[in-house]
């Protein structure tokens, strides 16, 4: 039982109350995605872990969960990258430098960076999946000596959806990170690989027991990527996945994000495959995960 | 605060009873508050001047003649925002009943020997002809919803229609369910948003807001039959307001 | 606490109700057409102590349908907890099953991160229960869930002994509502003997409604096959996703959060509104992915959230046995039938509306005062 005095204190404020935050930089990065650099009032640090998310509020419009895409080692500000898909994200796209938003969080459990120390890292991103992964990549960059080989495999639908292009070049140059990418559909200027991101996996050279694979993307993508990674004999608990679910509260109460008995907003969004494969509620289009894998 | 320039609103009607516009005039004080935010430039029910210069067109009624098509396309061109107002404009409403009979027959029945002189086409909601930005459902529209939609327009936010059944709101209002009293109700398959207005007032739900996106026609039919309604009554209940939705939503089950 | 049990004579009931009304806002079961609802008490004779579960559980007082969370303004940016002062209130005549429902939500909202709105309301709540001595109707499964008898969680519990009520005093808050009254006296040994007697009689009448005991139900729900059982498809085919079952459930607590602006377009309120896992879009994300698409998987989710997930998480069944979901479902999806069919698929053949056609469970007749015309 919680101490009554502590409880009374907690009852005075509300976890639904967002903090005031200011947009200090905003730019369109692709046709549909906008990048924001955000500063909390009083320049306090968000103190998040790579892979966690915040609830972004615009009063009158509502709230949406958005991954933090900067590393906790970036102090005094944090970054978000937002795809315009609906009500709140559309309103967010209309905001610019100097505008105010509300922030709650950070919420959820991030990538298990402590366990990953000393391991080789394979990062597999599909589309917008690179956004939460950027927090991990930047974290690794800032602590490069703590990790082994790092490889990034990125898949986009078209070259125009390629996020963080300049930064990727920078990563490759400065920190010995291997990078490969592929597009589903090429355009005339594209000179790289064409095909699904799964096609890149057989080509990577890894020592499975010494490797953590981190996968973020839409369900159809991570299902097949996981299959390929299992073929490479990476142990279940070393395959890390971040899931997207509908979220309203971030507090493990509203029920929208639930998979079986688990609230993704609190116990996730990051899970390892050992956990994931037991989720029967991980249903997609009426078909169960376990049946596909 | 900076005074924003007020957007101009014009009201138009097509095939309908003008009850929807009446609902606006019934708003009383709230209407006055709303006119602080908008300039009404065209509204037949309460004013005589007319204008072709407007930002927001609020259109009631269904499209049912060739001339209607021309006119609504004109309105669409001039308006920045087009609001479909009321059941006739959003789902073709009661006008849709006409579509059940062949057009020729409908014309004969209504106009008798003058049938040849009138032009008529099938009754359509506005969005079968032009793009619609906002929908205000209901017959007649529910005042709190009218206000909510106008607020959304002002802040440039979409107004997503609820995609769940009227029962949800009915239960929140703690009404005794009509089925509990062996009376029929379209609540289980009708789109919510009216705060179960009719049932709160002792009436049944007539489905004037149209059906939810994915109505459980199977289950609903079982329920209707179980409570002793005949198959043709069920079809009538479903089509009173919702004929144009038929092909998509229930015909397969009921025809 | 000195007195554990007190006696209230029936002729003093209304007097006590008047007294309670002065102490705090009083909500009690009242008649509404052919059913019952909890509502504010104007006159004591509105109260029906002999009632079947109300349309909505008393949940609407501690987890309201639409509740203000925040007060905000856009420019300048301001956000504050919307309600700071909550009112004292008494829930009068709550069934033991509904009290178990309050205990369930307690567990949920007290879990980290605590929900201040719920806790604020809970803090101001006084519960005066009433123990049932006859079955509500054939939909209830309170005995199987162990909630047909009081199991704590209340301040006072009334038991109708015929000429008088014996009141169990279970908290200091409850004690304060009886001690200073001269017409409420300490119970004598013979009253307690009578209570004992009533309880023994009750045991004979209340039978476990589910075919199998709870541990077997839990075991069945944990089995791989149950998740893919044909039962869910059958239930899903009949369900119309009206959401009634979840709306009336005392242990359903899912919600949505929405903003409403005032006409100034600068100030407004952020609300939370009941939201149900039976709704079409409940688990749909912006990319169009829907993680519980069919009505079958949504119904399954509802049942698992009563008989499996909370047992794993809190060691508590989140079905309290009030029978509301079955009573309200126009598609005749009956909890007892569904659960029995999951435990033993052979049952599925026998059911399908069977309970609907069963005679009412026999009831002892007993005069409980007002509203016995039900
Ligand atoms: C942990 C997590 C991290 C995320 N990180 C990011 C990120 O970094 N960047 C990013 O861009 N996105 C991210 N997302 C996704 C983002 O949260 C959604 O895109 C966002 O919630 C959309 O909200 P909205 O208000 O713009 O859309 P809305 O239009 O309000 O939609 C909100 C929800 O309602 C549903 N909905 C409403 N109307 C309809 C309809 N007509 N048809 C179908 N569905 C409908 C949608 O499915 C959606 O889930 C993340 C999500 C999660 C769970
Ligand atoms: S009265 Fe109609 S809307 Fe209300 S719960 Fe019953 S069926 Fe649904
Ligand atoms: S009350 Fe019945 S029909 Fe309605 S959602 Fe629940 S199970 Fe389905
Ligand atoms: S977002 Fe509300 S429970 Fe997870």
From TrEMBL, chain A:
Residues bound to [2Fe-2S] cluster: 249, 254, 257, 265
GO molecular function: 2 iron, 2 sulfur cluster binding; flavin adenine dinucleotide binding; metal ion binding; oxidoreductase activity
UniProt xrefs under PROSITE patterns: FAD_FR
Positions of the FAD-binding FR-type domain: 16-113
Keywords attached to this entry: 2Fe-2S, Iron, Iron-sulfur, Metal-binding
Highest taxon above the source species: Archaea
Gene Ontology biological process terms, A to Z: pyrimidine nucleotide biosynthetic process
Cofactor(s) the record lists: [2Fe-2S] cluster
Cofactor comment text: Binds 1 [2Fe-2S] cluster per subunit.
Name the record gives this protein: 2-polyprenylphenol hydroxylase-like oxidoreductase
Species of origin: Candidatus Methanoperedens nitratireducens
Automatic annotation (TrEMBL), chain B:
UniProt keyword annotations, A-Z: Oxidoreductase
GO MF terms held by the record: iron-sulfur cluster binding; oxidoreductase activity
Highest taxon, organism lineage: Archaea
Residue intervals of the NADH:ubiquinone oxidoreductase-like 20kDa subunit domain: 17-151
Pfam family, one: Oxidored_q6
InterPro entries linked: Hydrogenase_assoc-protein, NADH_UbQ_OxRdtase-like_20kDa, NiFe_Hase_small_N_sf
PANTHER family linked: COENZYME F420-REDUCING HYDROGENASE, GAMMA SUBUNIT, HYDROGENASE SMALL SUBUNIT
Protein name: Coenzyme F420-reducing hydrogenase, gamma subunit
Source organism (scientific name): Candidatus Methanoperedens nitratireducens
Automatic annotation (TrEMBL), chain C:
Annotated ranges, domain 4Fe-4S ferredoxin-type: 229-260, 307-339
Domain of life: Archaea
UniProt cross-references to InterPro entries, sorted A to Z: 4Fe4S_Fe-S-bd, 4Fe4S_Fe_S_CS
Pfam families: Fer4_22
SUPFAM superfamilies: alpha-helical ferredoxin
GO molecular function terms noted in the UniProt entry: oxidoreductase activity
Protein name: 4Fe-4S ferredoxin-type domain-containing protein
Source organism: Candidatus Methanoperedens nitratireducens
């Amino acid at each position: 039982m919680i101490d009554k005095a502590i409880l009374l204190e907690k009852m005075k404020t509300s976890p639904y109350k967002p903090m005031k935050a200011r947009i200090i930089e905003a730019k369109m990065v692709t046709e549909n995605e906008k990048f924001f650099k955000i500063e909390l009032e009083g320049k306090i640090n968000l103190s998040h872990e790579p892979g966690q998310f915040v609830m972004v509020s615009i009063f009158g419009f509502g709230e949406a969960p958005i991954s933090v895409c900067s590393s906790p080692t970036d102090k005094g500000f944090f970054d978000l990258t937002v795809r315009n898909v609906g009500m709140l994200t559309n309103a967010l796209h209309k905001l610019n430098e100097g505008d105010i938003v509300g922030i709650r969080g950070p919420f959820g459990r991030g990538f298990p960076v402590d366990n990953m120390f000393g391991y080789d890292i394979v990062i597999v991103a599909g589309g917008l999946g690179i956004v939460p992964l950027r927090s991990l990549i930047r974290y690794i960059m800032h602590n490069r000596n703590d990790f082994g080989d790092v490889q990034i495999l990125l898949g986009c639908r078209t070259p125009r959806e390629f996020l963080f292009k300049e930064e990727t070049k920078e990563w490759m140059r400065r920190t010995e990170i291997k990078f490969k990418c592929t597009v589903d559909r090429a355009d005339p200027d594209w000179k790289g690989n064409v095909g699904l991101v799964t096609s890149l996996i057989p080509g990577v050279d890894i020592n499975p027991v010494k490797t953590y694979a981190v996968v973020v993307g839409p369900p159809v993508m991570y299902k097949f990527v996981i299959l390929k990674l299992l073929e490479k004999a990476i142990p279940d608990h070393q395959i890390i996945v971040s899931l997207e679910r509908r979220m309203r509260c971030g507090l493990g109460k509203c029920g929208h994000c639930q998979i079986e008995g688990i609230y993704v907003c609190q116990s996730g969004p990051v899970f390892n495959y050992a956990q994931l494969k037991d989720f029967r509620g991980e249903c997609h289009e009426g078909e169960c995960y376990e049946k596909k894998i | 605060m900076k005074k924003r320039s007020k957007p101009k609103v014009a009201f138009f009607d097509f095939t309908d009873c003008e009850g929807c516009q009446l609902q606006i005039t019934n708003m009383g004080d709230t209407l006055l508050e709303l006119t602080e935010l908008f300039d009404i430039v065209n509204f037949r029910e309460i004013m005589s001047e007319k204008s072709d210069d407007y930002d927001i067109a609020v259109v009631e009624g269904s499209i049912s003649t060739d001339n209607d098509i021309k006119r609504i396309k004109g309105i669409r061109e001039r308006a920045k925002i087009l609001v479909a107002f009321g059941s006739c404009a959003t789902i073709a409403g009661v006008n849709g009943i006409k579509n059940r009979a062949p057009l020729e027959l409908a014309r004969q029945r209504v106009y008798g020997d003058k049938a040849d002189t009138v032009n008529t086409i099938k009754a359509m909601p506005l969005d079968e002809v032009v793009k619609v930005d906002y929908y205000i459902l209901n017959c007649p529209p529910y005042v709190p919803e009218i206000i909510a939609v106008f607020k959304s327009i002002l802040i440039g936010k979409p107004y997503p229609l609820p995609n769940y059944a009227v029962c949800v709101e009915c239960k929140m209002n703690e009404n005794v369910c009509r089925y509990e009293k062996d009376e029929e109700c379209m609540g289980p398959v009708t789109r919510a948003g009216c705060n179960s207005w009719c049932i709160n007032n002792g009436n049944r739900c007539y489905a004037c807001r149209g059906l939810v996106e994915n109505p459980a026609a199977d289950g609903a039919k079982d329920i209707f039959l179980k409570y002793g309604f005949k198959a043709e009554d069920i079809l009538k209940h479903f089509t009173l307001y919702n004929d144009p939705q038929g092909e998509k939503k229930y015909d397969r089950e009921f025809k | 606490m000195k007195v554990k049990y007190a006696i209230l004579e029936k002729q003093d009931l209304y007097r006590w109700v008047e007294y309670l009304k002065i102490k705090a806002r009083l909500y009690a079961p009242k008649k509404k057409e052919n059913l019952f609802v909890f509502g504010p008490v104007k006159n004591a004779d509105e109260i029906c102590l002999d009632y079947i579960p109300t349309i909505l559980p008393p949940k609407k007082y501690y987890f309201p349908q639409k509740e203000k969370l925040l007060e905000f303004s856009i420019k300048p940016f301001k956000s504050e907890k919307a309600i700071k002062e909550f009112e004292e209130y008494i829930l009068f005549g709550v069934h033991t099953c509904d009290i178990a429902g309050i205990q369930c939500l307690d567990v949920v909202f007290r879990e980290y991160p605590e929900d201040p709105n719920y806790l604020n309301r809970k803090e101001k709540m006084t519960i005066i229960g009433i123990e049932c001595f006859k079955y509500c109707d054939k939909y209830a499964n309170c005995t199987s869930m162990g909630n047909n008898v009081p199991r704590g969680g209340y301040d006072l519990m009334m038991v109708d002994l015929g000429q008088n009520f014996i009141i169990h005093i279970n908290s200091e808050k409850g004690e304060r509502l009886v001690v200073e009254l001269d017409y409420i006296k300490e119970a004598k040994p013979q009253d307690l003997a009578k209570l004992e007697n009533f309880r023994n009689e009750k045991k004979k009448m209340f039978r476990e409604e589910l075919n199998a005991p709870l541990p077997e139900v839990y075991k069945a729900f944990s089995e791989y096959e149950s998740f893919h059982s044909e039962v869910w498809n059958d239930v899903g085919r009949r369900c119309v996703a009206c959401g009634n079952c979840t709306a009336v459930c005392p242990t359903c607590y899912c919600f949505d959060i929405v903003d409403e602006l005032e006409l100034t377009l600068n100030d407004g309120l952020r609300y939370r509104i009941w939201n149900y896992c039976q709704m079409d879009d409940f688990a749909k994300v912006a990319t169009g992915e829907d993680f519980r698409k069919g009505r079958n998987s949504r119904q399954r989710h509802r049942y698992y959230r009563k008989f499996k997930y909370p047992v794993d998480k809190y060691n508590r069944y989140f079905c309290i046995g009030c029978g509301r979901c079955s009573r309200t479902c126009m598609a005749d999806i009956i909890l007892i039938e569904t659960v029995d069919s999951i435990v033993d698929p052979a049952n599925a053949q026998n059911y399908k509306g069977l309970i609907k056609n069963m005679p009412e469970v026999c009831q002892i007749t007993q005069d409980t005062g007002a509203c016995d015309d039900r």
